[in-house]
Amino acid sequence: xxxxxxxxxxxxxxxQRARPEILAMGGYVSARSIEKSNRDTIFLDANECxxxxxxxxxxxxxxxxxxxTALQEAICxxxxxxxxxxxxxxxxxxxxDCLVRAFCVPGQDNIVICPPTFAMYAQSATLQNAEVRQxxxxxxxxxxxxxxxxxxxxxxxxxxxxxxxxxxxxLMNRARILRLCADYAETALVVVDETYVEFADSESLIPxxxxxxxxxxxxxxxxxxAAAGLRCGVAVARSxxxxxxxxxxxxxxxxxxxxxxxLTILSAKSQSVLxxxxxxxxxxxxxxxxxxxxxxxxxxxxxxxxxxxLVRVKDAADLCEKCRASGIILRxxxxxxxxxxxxxxxxxxxxxxxxxxxxxxxETISARTNQRVETVIRKTNETAISVRVNLDAAAPVRINTxxxxxxxxxxxxxxxxxxxxxxxxDGDLHIDPHHSVEDCAIALGQAIxxxxxDKRGIGRYGFFLPMDESQVKVALDxxxxxxxxxxxxxxxSHVGDLPTDMVPHVFYSLAENMQxxxxxxxxxxxxxxxxxxCFKGFGRAxxxxxxxxxxxxxxxxxxx
Length: 560
Ligand SMILES: *Cc1c(COP(=O)(O)O)cnc(C)c1O
Fold this sequence. Notes:
Layout: H1 20-24, H2 31-34, H3 69-79, E1 86-89, H4 91-103, E2 110-113, H5 120-127, E3 131-134, H6 145-151, E4 156-162, H7 174-183, E5 189-193, E6 215-220, E7 233-236, H8 239-248, H9 256-265, H10 268-292, E8 298-301, E9 308-313, H11 316-325, E10 331-332, E11 342-346, H12 350-360, H13 367-370, E12 373-379, E13 383-390, E14 397-400, H14 404-417, E15 420-427, H15 434-452, E16 462-467, E17 470-477, E18 483-487, E19 494-495, E20 498-499, H16 502-514, E21 517-523, H17 527-546
Parallel strand pairs: 2-3, 2-4, 4-5, 5-6, 14-15, 18-21
Antiparallel strand pairs: 1-7, 6-7, 8-9, 9-11, 10-11, 12-13, 13-15, 16-17, 17-21, 19-20
Helix pairs in contact: 4-5, 4-8, 10-12, 14-17, 15-16
Pyridoxal-5'-phosphate binds at residues 91-93, 118, 162, 166, 193, 195, 220, 222-223, 228, 233.
């Protein structure tokens, strides 16, 4: 692993190939590069204000570190490397730019790219007035090492390799990349852009830094961690290269809110949630690829190791236009060498992909606009909750409130309600379940109300349900006003980890936020049965009430 990087004996220091003026200059000495703060330090050195700009602001008044220590540590845990090997940047794009600026003498040096590939390498080189040389990928869209060797010369400073490659979606052959590292050990950097590696069935090349001093790996939170808006990426390299990059990099590239959010994203909990979501994307990608096979306009779907598909079609411009007319934007890649009539399609949500497939099959979609999908994000000091419902799909149902029995109950609502429900909750369970239970119900109620829209075509109504000795009666009306009548006398104070006095609260919050009248009466002897019957019965009543039975407003008033 890179943690044990030794200085290779013949590392005639690839960094000596950097621009001479960059080698000669000292880094900018920023306000935070000299002193590490501790509680007693009085900072009067950077003309900052000694108070926060608004109530609730945290750490906004002071300049951040160029490489914030806590974020370095989190990234080192993520990538299993040590601090001196990473440079954190505003996305991988900025890392590309810093590499070019550090190494390419304007008007003299060149870089090599392997098209069809990602556009930013050439963009950054052109801005630096470095020549862009092209060594096209071979017929299988893999590296053509021989061609690369013919393309380079003594002024070649960087060879960019994108793996998995954007837009062809395939991994590059590992042995060929390492061959390049060896061939150019003392003359050029081999920069491997691994933006999409988390979606591939493959290991990162980071451990190869041990053997190759000219290797640089790029990673980013943009794609694999669903955080393109955050602007946070990282270059992993040997420490001499890292040092150069940090000379070229701005003194404060990472705003404090970015650092805080990146730390949340890199926490163990988010990482495991994101890994599960990436697996969903991969599954969906494979399903979509399979469905394409049956579409007459699609000539070929290229194998993908990423979160997008490259498809060859009969007429790329026509498909893009047809999709645009239905509100779906694709990326036509036909301008790239070897990609005539090729279109790149990102793997979106299940509904997105259904809508896309409908257009490809020549069905006009009202499908998407017609789906009753809603996401509600609710954040307070006590809980952070995300609820997503799709009233017109039965799956997925995925619930994680942190309260096992409550998950089980919300699952009943979704299953018996016949709709897709995803809930994630990060709540103050160390205090008690109260806030999490109530806030999830509030957010769920809101999501259902918003998803129902103008309620055109829905029914309104109720359900009886026995469960062993228990019996529940549920009546529900989405009349636009809120009323709760809840009648239960639970014998026990808890079912599992859910306090039973929270059950009426849940239905109160649901009814209030759905703007519905809700009557629930339950009788029985076993608390578990009684509680579960309430949730099941509510789900069943909901199923009837939300089902579209036509296009009528279910009220003589004309609106609800
Ligand atoms: C999207 C993309 C990037 C840009 O990443 P940021 O971290 O958002 O700057 C870099 N490389 C490739 C191959 C990409 O597709």
